Amino acid sequence: MSKYTLLLAASLFLCYACSTELPPDLAAELKTLPSELDYNLHVKPILSDKCFACHGPDKAKQKAGLRLDIAEAAYARLEENPGKVAIAKGSLRRSEVFHRIISTDPEYLMPSPASHLSLSNREKAILIKWIKDGAEYQPHWAFVAPKKTEVPKVKKAGWVKNPIDNFIVQKLEEEKLAPSPEASKEILLRRLSLDLTGLPPTLTEIDAFLQDKSPKAYEKQVDRLLNSPHYGEKMAVDWLDLARFADSHGYTVDRLRDMSPYRDWVIQAFNANQKYDQFIQWQLAGDMMPKPSKDMIIATAFNRNHPQNMEGGIIEEEFQTEYVVDRTNTFGEAFMGLSLGCAKCHDHKYDPLSQQNYYEIFSFFNNVKEAGQISWNSAPPTPTLMLPTEKQEKIIRFIQKTIAEQEQKITQLQAQSEPDFKQWLQSGAYQTLAKAKIPQNGLQAHYTFEDGDLKNSVNPKQIGIMKRETGMTGDKPDFVATNSGKALKMEGDVYLDLNEVGVFRKSEPFSIGIKVNIPKGLKEGVIFHKSSAERLYNFRGYHLYLKNDRLEINMAHTAPSNAISRVSQQPVPRDRWIQLTLTYDGSSRAEGFKLYQDGQALAMETTMDQLYKDIIFNSNPELGLQIGAWWRGLGFKGGQVDDIMVYQRELTPFEVEILAQKQSWPSIVSKKHQQLSAKEVAILQAYYQNSVSPGLLAAQKALQISRTQLSDSSAQVEELMVMQEMTKPKKTFLLQRGNYDMSGKEVFPNTPSAILPFPNNLPKNRLGLAQWLCLPEHPLTARVAVNRFWQNFFGAGLVKTTEDFGNQGELPSHLALLDWLALSFVESGWDIKALNKLIVMSATYRQSSKVNKNLREKDPENRFLARGPAYRMSAEMIRDNALTASGLLNKKIGGKSIKPYQPQGLWEINSANYAQDTTDAVYRRSLYIVVKRSVPHPTLATFDAGSRSYCVVRRQKTNTPLQALVTLNDPTFLEASKVLGVQMCNMPDARKAIVEVYRRLTGRQPAADEVELLLGLQKKQREKFQQNPEKTRGWLNAGLYKVDPTLDVALLAANAVVANTILNSDATLTRR
């Protein structure tokens, strides 16, 4: 090709590229558009879906440095071609976007073919018209505070029952649609009862409503159901999905846990009509309220409902981070309808949420002292709240009062013991102390290693054993020579097991002395401990640990929060012998837990001081003191130990100096009492009070008994995981790529300014965050809540994507109504029952769900609401409906979860045993069925019950053959059918029996042809069972319910088939 030809082709291409002439199909599409475009309604959905992935808020993914989500960037000169702009207001010729979207050159076309995000002709036409009209940007509708609008006036004013209907009718009139007539009273009452209580109406309730001809008949039913104790149960089902409530920890092991007190609180809160702002503030930060009540703290279990991992070998910090990530993501989705999690690893690709925004919110939830690897036993992960019964609380308070009195009495006895002490001093009895090199009173064990063995010199029958961290024996002790004799060298994986020595409860005073030589290169490791493993049981017991050149003493029931933890404030000496003594007074307080180095008390920082349960395992035998290593943890590698002493009492400071060979008794007791200095007298007086005085020893023994009684009483008290703020705020860093071990810059608590800046007058903590969420000007909180409550009644929210109010979410079907409801909700004082009543009292809610072909074609998903909602009942409703209709339902409210019928062996996948309930607990509501995260109850799972491993605000809806197999074969439904069959046997008129059962299950009268079909089925099935009685067994043996043996089993089985057929019908399973 000649140079001239190339230049001509290039010129023609440039002319075409600069042309604003449209292809005929695009020009035709432009003519179909409305005269005015709305940016949020028409334009932004296209930009968000097709452009923001490469030209949106995520800086890391922005191509060519171009942003199209904000006006200033879209109007600015292009980074790669400063002579051009992406969008020129009102000018297609100057807008690069226009030329790109209409191009036929794959190298020039945008979106690029490689992205698979091509624009339709209509989408191109909308963008073209928008640019021609001035390319005006508007803020995202959900990030602008709702504005009160006037209730619209409509032509069908006679149909309207409250303002909701005005907004709905206005839209219907725009779409040239008419609302549907009101549903029949039977249908309406069943709909209302299911929506407000999750239970069907009884025949008595149906008949009473049918007979009530008063103008307020329907409203009376609304008020009755709103005040039903079962209202709270129904409301709780959806909230527990959102709160990811479960009865197990999740992950591979998935052990059970008990969070039922939180579920009980949620039910009670809904029944009491707790205002929504208070309801969510308590859950987010109830523990931080002024003088928080027990209920306020229980509510914070919301933040701890997430899965927690107990698998061995996991990385502590990784899972601590995961738990905070869960809280952060749940906060965003549950309360603001935002996919915050999309900003964990990078800036959000579609919404104005940066990665820094994410970790600023993350920091609000990152100030809890919790374990990443939770305890292998049944101890609830801390922090926890003790939940004693009324009886337990009385006992505990009595013991606590007794302890306080006994502690005061000891203080008084110490002051009163002066005369007795002087008499003892003058008698010279103290001079006998010269006989022993170390204190002998209370000495349980002493290991010197001088004879090259591991014998306890106090009790030579007690011989220590060298063990591997796995518990294997066979290793020989490695004795090394020192200036003072022999010492034991530790290699880090082998420990000295002292068997039953050192077994103490938190109520028992004790002291442990040990000489150690810490090698220079050892950064971290355990010196001694009495526990099962490092993290396996969250450090239950006590230990002395070297970390970061400091010494840590710890005593725990379940670390890190049900514990005492203290850390020395000075560096530990290396490569020389030092003597360490730990003393404890049995008080369960940090001040009673001391550490001495070479006889001198070390300055200690207390990092945790709330030990409220015992430190032993109550196993037989109980594990004793172990030196130098522990299972799955770092040991005292290269270190040396010597002269180990264990006392069953708290040593005095002078006695500690004796162990460190800094003092000795002979230097004092060799003197006559008149020659003693004041300091020496004080030393002897401390010894007298601690080891001699009969009155004080008896008082101390009584105090120890009371403290043990408190430990025993507290052991029976149940605990609930809750939130508890750390006194010293934890630093938070932006995690690069979301990785726990890739810390970036430090961030501080804050909220995204694109949503609502955090006010200066609120505290920068969880309480402040909860208060920020409920500010009247917050654009999302009320909208999201109202939308979710609307979804409960219509099957879909006004914003269908309940979980996403951001740029990728669906636009509201009725924005003005959503805003009106949101503002009314706030103005009502966040009154949930008032909102629900407003919705169900509307003519919109009361419409018949019948639909004609025209309406179905125009609005298949019922987004215009020209008819009542009809959809399959929820998983819980389907089971509860069968139990209610049969009369089996156990209506007990609250309490622990139940284990109803379930196929055998399901839980064996993670070595768990499913012990099915054998009482009427199996007939309790589905709300109470145990939720094991790794193995959800198959019936509920098949009918789309929410996953409880993460926050779910909108359940999926499926329709599969498995669902029919469940209602045809699950023992619950077979048993309900059997019980209904028994009741039918007791009714002499078969026709009336069928009508009654049909009404119980469906809430309405059957049509005549339906009755005839069922009568025919009954007759056919009865003949079948009479010919083959063996086939009745499946029905007779279903469930726990025992059948009267005198009944006609063929008739019973036939009736059960009829009942089960009705139960499986669309009329039963569909909430209309």
TrEMBL record:
Residues 1-19 form the signal peptide. Keywords: Signal. One of its GO terms (molecular function) is hydrolase activity, hydrolyzing O-glycosyl compounds. InterPro entries: ConA-like_dom_sf, Cyt_c-like_dom_sf, Cyt_c_Planctomycete-type, DUF1549, DUF1553. Pfam families: Laminin_G_3, PSCyt1, PSCyt2, PSD1. Residues 163-369 form the DUF1549 domain. GO terms for biological process: carbohydrate metabolic process. The keyword Signal applies. Residues 51-111 form the Cytochrome C Planctomycete-type domain. This is Cytochrome c domain-containing protein.
